[in-house]
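Weekly sync notes, structure subgroup
Attendees: PM, AL, DS (notes)

Item 1: joint prediction request from the bench team. They want all two components modeled as one assembly rather than separately. Inputs as received:
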Amino acid sequence: KAGVTQTPRYLIKTRGQQVTLSCSPISGHRSVSWYQQTPGQGLQFLFEYFSETQRNKGNFPGRFSGRQFSNSRSEMNVSTLELGDSALYLCASSPEGYNQPQHFGDGTRLSIL
Amino acid sequence: SQQGEEDPQALSIQEGENATMNCSYKTSINNLQWYRQNSGRGLVHLILIRSNEREKHSGRLRVTLDTSKKSSSLLITASRAADTASYFCAPNQGGKLIFGQGTELSVKP
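Output from the run, pasted for the record:
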């Protein structure tokens, strides 16, 4: 079975731009979660989507948004990029319920100049 | 604030030795998951222990969970140089994994 696939792997943007990151979950997985990893703040939960609905949300400003499609693929969007948005963005998928492992992709490394 | 707090922050051992990492958390959880991360890569899922379980094994890994003390431990036996990585515990609070800063494990050949 293919793992979680995130594209692109690397991205360079400038302040004020917006960016869209993509995540394809493991086949059959319906839940997709997004996390941000930075050296200062560590790994932080952004949001979770299940059956095209946001089921959980972390403590990030409204510039961070996401969506999930009917095939469970997910995208996250960050608008008006700031230098502090430079991070590794990780996507994780799990089958359905909360008592199942979340499997992560290799992430998208976003650098803001 | 972070919920999963790992201890120690860094651990250096020789190949063949055992490595023990501890984790504490603050609120009630559905389960607790342990992950490994090699530099700049994604997280590799190691083991999930449910809130009603006390101990779980997977190969050279042994995880314990004490919900009364809100703590967990990960034991890696007979460590190998390839085990060198950062290890994170992630208490699962209603679908949200809440990570700490991790333990950096270095296994010297």
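Discussion: The mean pLDDT of chain A is 95.
Action: AL to compare against the crosslinking data before next sync.
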